[in-house]
Amino acid sequence: MHPITIVGGGLAGLALGIGLRRAGVPARILEAGDYPRHRVCGEFISGPGQEVLDRLGLIEALKTSGVLPARTGAIFIGGTRSPVRPFPKPALCISRYELDRTLAEVFTGLGGRLQTRTRVPQREDEPGTVWASGRKPMVKEEGWRWFGLKAHARNVKLDADLEMHAVPEGYVGLCGIPGGNVNVCGLFRRDSRNTGWENRRTGMSTLRGPPGSVLHERLAGAEFDEGSFCSVAGLGWKGNPPRDVCSIGDAFAMTPPVTGNGMSIALETAEIALDPLVEFSKDRIAWSNARDSIFASCHSALSARLRWAGWLHRAIMSERLRTRFGPVFLGSDLLWRFMFRATRTCGRVV
Ligand SMILES: Cc1cc2nc3c(=O)[nH]c(=O)nc-3n(C[C@H](O)[C@H](O)[C@H](O)COP(=O)(O)OP(=O)(O)OC[C@H]3O[C@@H](n4cnc5c(N)ncnc54)[C@H](O)[C@@H]3O)c2cc1C
Predict the structure, then answer these.
(1) pLDDT exceeds cutoff 50 at 16
(2) 248: closest CA among 144, 150, 143, 134?
(3) What is the pLDDT of residues 264-300, one digit of tens each?
(4) How far is CA 107 from CA 10, 22, 118, 252, 293, in A?
């Protein structure tokens, strides 16, 4: 069998590696970093990704490492808030520190080769190589520099399992994760004169939101776990998925975090890639056929969702739309349900 090399051992790469090993395909993952590690992520898995975890036989392993179902959500924009509403289907909250470590252990347990601290320098198309290397860094998008911050905190009481707070030039999500912690994760934008945060201390203060906001009050007594603080810059959502290499997850396309759907997309694209890669490995189809079929299937599965998520993200970032339509949006059950349907941000509980 032809072996498969996966560049990047994040969620997409590990899920694909596990699927390949279960199908008996020789697979190795080259990962620039190491495990366990904290990642900037809202740690809220929604959408069909949960079913992929189930089909990959990973739910039991994740239950052992700890997951919490999220059944309700609430959105806060300025002084207005939505009622606490049920999700169409519950989501899962799980620490990426635990999730990535667990998946890495399952992959190696199935005989996969995991090479950490190995950065592959050049993105090139090689038969049998899949790029799961995450987002392509963007210096600016629409004139803004985007960055993400995350930290776990204790002593935070939430009204809903997931709270989304719009703050000036960004939004912050709060969700309970196992162990009594709350994940505090935000996406922010700044113009080129303003970096927004310089160090861990100013980063955590950015996450608390401006004084006087509901978010700031919510986090007034929060005790942040400094070791969990992490940041990422150079985020962007524009640009076409690459056709010249075989890619999955964020390396294929990144969705704005507002829908909490990026992890689901990573898992779904890994599953889409599985059959063509097994066929290639068994020498039943040529590499170009496998690569092109993965591209076409990912494109048709994701393009409408990515468009909706882009619109939702622009709406929540626009001060004008927030002020004008925020109260209408927050008050409408119909729009709430529509938002989940359009972005496929619903899944099922384990
Ligand atoms: C602020 C923010 C909040 C978010 N919140 C949520 C949320 O609540 N729910 C949700 O579902 N999604 C969320 N996401 C998105 C989600 O985190 C990503 O979509 C998901 O992690 C993508 O998985 P991936 O495997 O494609 O990429 P990654 O998880 O980024 O993994 C890529 C891996 O490749 C490695 N790598 C990169 N380059 C190389 C190289 N050249 N050689 C070797 N290795 C390499 C990296 O070290 C990394 O481990 C959020 C994102 C942001 C920025």
Answers:
(1) yes
(2) 134
(3) 999 999 999 999 999 999 999 999 999 999 999 999 9
(4) 12, 9, 17, 22, 25
**Closest Cα to atom 29 of ligand 1:** 10
Ligand 1 cavity residues, CB under 6 Å:
7-13, 30-33, 40-45, 119-120, 132-134, 148, 185, 187, 232, 235, 249-251, 257, 260-264, 266
Tell how far the Cα of 252 is from the centroid of ligand 1, in angstroms.
Answer: 11
User: Scanning the structure block, which residue is given the tokens 């704005």?
Assistant: 256
Single-letter code of the amino acid located at 100: D
What residue type is 163 in one-letter code?
Answer: E
Q: What is the pTM of this model?
A: 0.95
Determine the Cα–Cα distance for residues 225 and 230; give it in Å rounded to an integer.
11
Q: Long-range contacts: 256-259, Cβ < 8 Å, 24+? A: 256/187, 256/309, 256/310, 256/312, 256/313, 257/42, 257/148, 257/173, 257/185, 257/187, 258/164, 258/171, 258/187, 258/309, 258/312, 258/313, 258/316, 259/46, 259/309, 259/312, 259/343, 259/345
Strand, coil or helix: 200: helix
| DSSP single-letter state for residue 110 | T
Q: How far is CA 218 from CA 109, 151, 175, 202, 316, in A?
A: 42, 15, 12, 18, 20
Distances, alpha carbon 118 to alpha carbons 3, 7, 33, 51, 115, in Å: 18, 9, 7, 31, 6
Q: Which atom of ligand 1 is nearest to the CA of 10?
A: 31
Residues 29 and 12: beta-carbon distance below 8 Å:
no
Task: Judge contact between 253 and 300, C-beta under 8 A.
Answer: no
